[in-house]
Write a sequence for this structure.
């Protein structure tokens, strides 16, 4: 089973000190969506934005989700520029976003140097209804590459539409946790034995998926408590 490393601290601060070449960048940054005014953004916690009011769990909140769109775009550009610096030629970046931040995320990705290759919708069968409107059952993964995409041998054909709902009950360890089957598909963009970087590791789903699919993992998580959860998952996956 490939190795894994998880650093605890701020993503941008720690990325600037790394020099390990990576084969893919796959991450779920804080979307900084929600309130339509600065006051609303500051007053809403991540839990307020992303967890139903009747949720029975008490999973920890996380920082970094109160930037306005200009601040978010600038910050994401800095982060993605550091990941681009670490990426091998042909490496892919897969960045999660929602509808509100999709334009900002694509701007940041391209400003950082990545070539934007497309959007992969993520359909969530279990999702929030909207009164007199359309259910929020889709988020997105932006795909970019450093130069021409890596040519896999043998050739791979990955899906252009992802489907899967967030874990529920005892399996849910983070308020914005992504489904493991979805992440296991995404990590295949890295070559077997390659290194996957996730600067927003959360509870470790990207890392667990990478290890299960025969890839190594390098992660960064800001919250010490959430990082401890991720380390336990990664140790169990090895």
């Amino acid at each position: 089973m490939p190795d894994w490393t998880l650093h605890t601290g701020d993503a941008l601060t720690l990325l600037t000190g790394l020099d390990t070449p990576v084969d893919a960048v796959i991450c779920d940054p804080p979307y900084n969506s929600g309130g339509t005014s600065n006051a609303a953004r500051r007053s809403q916690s991540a839990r307020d934005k992303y967890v139903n009011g009747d949720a029975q769990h008490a999973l920890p909140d996380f920082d970094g989700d109160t930037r306005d769109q200009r601040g978010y775009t600038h910050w994401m550009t800095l982060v993605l520029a550091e990941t681009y610096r670490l990426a091998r030629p042909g490496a892919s970046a897969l960045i999660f976003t929602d509808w509100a931040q999709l334009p900002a995320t694509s701007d940041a990705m391209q400003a950082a140097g990545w070539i934007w290759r497309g959007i992969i919708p993520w359909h969530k069968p279990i999702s929030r209804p909207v009164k007199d409107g359309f259910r929020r059952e889709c988020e997105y993964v932006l795909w970019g590459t450093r130069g021409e995409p890596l040519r896999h041998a043998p050739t791979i054909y990955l899906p252009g539409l992802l489907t899967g709902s967030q874990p529920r009950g005892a399996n849910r360890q983070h308020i914005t946790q992504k489904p493991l089957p979805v992440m296991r598909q995404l990590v295949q963009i890295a070559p077997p034995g390659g290194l996957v970087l996730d600067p927003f590791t959360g509870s470790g789903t990207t890392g667990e998926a990478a290890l299960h699919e025969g890839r190594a993992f390098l992660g960064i998580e800001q919250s010490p408590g959430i990082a401890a959860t991720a380390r336990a998952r990664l140790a169990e996956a090895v």
Notes: The helical segments are 11-15, 38-43, 46-50, 69-86, 102-111, 180-186, 205-212, 224-237. The mean pLDDT is 88.
